[in-house]
Write a structure and sequence with these properties.
The chain has 314 residues and is mostly helical. The protein has one domain. 80% of the residues lie in helices and 0% in strands. The protein has 16 helices and no strands. The chain starts with a helix and ends with a helix.
Length: 314
């Protein structure tokens, strides 16, 4: 069981669950509560949606490790599970079963919400994760962008069923400007953008970390194609871009003291530290540390939702 939990990256799956519920309860809820409105997308349906996405992601991790086995034996031999602790056939069967259940749940949630077209979300994610494992990750930047984009969809998915239901029930109030739910979409998009940039940066950092195995098996990752020097330069650009956008976003859209302290202490300063560590990085272990720091920074950005909750209700 322990090996299976490691295979599906149980810690990452828990972060996804936390992401969903923080967006729902720290952003969507206070905006609705302030206007005297309740959730239209029920807690039960929301939980099924979260479960569907978590299962799709877990299946994605399994299929990724299934196709990555040879490369991982070079890059990180101690972490290889498929073929050592879990039979390859067992892994592919488990992947298939989890995906079928996830797709079924996705369509059931869409049916319950009366938005049938949204049932294809799980199918699209499953297809992207499959082709990422078999094809995209071997192409310059394509795999990095796909993973970053999939991660960035989580804040959007957390509100994608709620917003249409709100507009359907409160059409007249919205048209007469008695109610305004636009802030829900604004914050969801903001978190999504932040997640995309940081995940893209982290995926490229991991490519430098995995350089030896990727080179050996002919993968067209950025470090293999353009070299580590220019890849590091691109990572530095992404970090500086994130810092700049964060400062501009704060100055233009937020501008309160609590946010100022939080963003400075837990976003800007860590980004500057990561910037310095990236400049100094030379060994594989250095890039592994940077990857972990970026992951912590993503959590830090996610916990900013508590500041938003406080600001909305006070």
């Amino acid at each position: 069981m322990l090996h299976f939990l490691k295979l599906i990256r149980i810690k990452n799956l828990l972060i996804i669950v936390i992401n969903f519920y923080l967006i729902r309860w720290c952003i969507t809820y206070p905006i609705l509560h302030k206007q005297g409105v309740d959730f239209q997308f029920s807690e039960f349906n929301f939980s099924l949606l979260v479960l569907s996405i978590v299962m799709t992601t877990a299946a994605g991790y399994i299929i990724n490790d299934y196709f990555d086995r040879k490369t991982d034996l070079v890059n990180r031999p101690k972490t290889v599970i498929i073929g050592k602790h879990i039979h390859r056939r067992t892994a592919i069967i488990t992947h298939t079963i989890i995906n079928i259940l996830a797709v079924g749940l996705s369509f059931y949630v869409a049916y319950r919400a009366g938005m049938y077209k949204l049932g294809i979300i799980s199918i699209i994610m499953t297809a992207l994760l499959w082709f990422y494992s078999t094809t995209f990750k071997r192409m310059l930047l394509v795999g990095n962008i796909v993973v970053a984009a999939l991660t960035a969809t989580i804040p959007i998915l957390a509100v994608i069923f709620e917003i249409p239901l709100l507009h359907e029930k409160y059409t007249n109030e919205i048209l007469s400007k008695q109610m305004d739910f636009s802030d829900i979409g604004f914050w969801a998009i903001g978190f999504s953008f932040f997640a995309f940039i940081l995940n893209l940066t982290r995926e490229i950092v991991k490519d430098i970390e995995d350089y030896e195995g990727d080179l050996k098996f002919g993968r067209k990752t950025m470090p293999v194609v353009v070299g580590k020097f220019y890849t590091k330069a691109f990572i530095l650009f992404l970090i500086l871009f994130t810092i700049t956008i964060t400062i501009i976003g704060f100055a233009k859209y937020i501008n309160d003291n609590i946010s100022l302290w939080y963003i400075t202490a837990f976003i800007i300063l860590p980004l500057l530290y990561i910037l310095v560590q990236t400049i100094r990085a030379k060994e594989k272990e250095n890039y592994h540390t940077i990857s972990r720091l970026l992951k912590l920074l993503m959590l830090s950005g996610l916990f900013y939702s508590f500041v938003i909750l406080y600001n909305i209700l006070n």
